[in-house]
UniProtKB/TrEMBL annotation:
This is Lysine transporter LysE. The keyword Iron-sulfur does not apply. Pfam families: LysE. InterPro entries: LeuE-type.
Amino acid sequence: MLGTAQILSYIAALGLAAAIPGPGMTALVARSVSGGAVTGFTMLTGLILGDLIYLSVAVFGLAVIAHNYTSLFTLINWAASLYLCCLAWQFWRYQPQAVNIDQRATRKQLASAWFSGLTITLGNPKTIAFYLAILPLVISLDNVSLQIWGMMLVPLTIFVLLAVGAVFILAALKIRHFLTSAEAQRLLFRSAGVIMLLAAIGMVAKTL
C-alpha cells in the first residue's frame, strides 16, 4: 500500500504538472472557447486517457525498457515532436469562426476534440517527462501492485486532472464572451500553436 505521504506527494506533483500551462491545457482552453463546455470536457476525457496510458506504462515497468533502448526512445521523442509541429501548424492556420454560445457541438466535433486530447497528451513532452522521470521519484513503483494501480492511482489521476482541467475550462468559458472577434480567436489559437512548437523543439533538443 502507498503511504499517506506518497499519496499526497503524487497529488501535489500531478496537480502542479497539470496546472503549468503546456500544449494540453492550452489546447483545452482554445477548444473550450471555440466549442463550449461540452467540447472542452470531451477533450479533457481524451487528455486524461492519455495520462492513464503513460501512468500504466510507468507502473508496469515499460519505462525501464524505453530507457534501456536509447535509440527507440529517441525515435519516440522525434515522432512526438513531429506530431506537435503538425498540431502547431494547424492551430496557427486556424480560421476563426463566429462564437455561438447556444450552438451545440456535433458528434463529429466532439469526436475530434476527444481524439485531439488523447493524441496531444501522447505527444506532450511534459506528460512524458512526468510519468517516465518524475513519477518514480515521487512513488516507489516497485511496490505498486495491480490493485494499487487500479484502486488508487487511476482514480487519483482522474480526480486531479478532472479538477485542474475543469478550472481551465471554466476560465475559458468566462472569457468566451470577450473572444468573439476573429482577431482574438486567431491570437488565442496562434499562441497555442507557438507553445506546441516550443515544446516540440525542447523535446528534440534533449535528444541531441
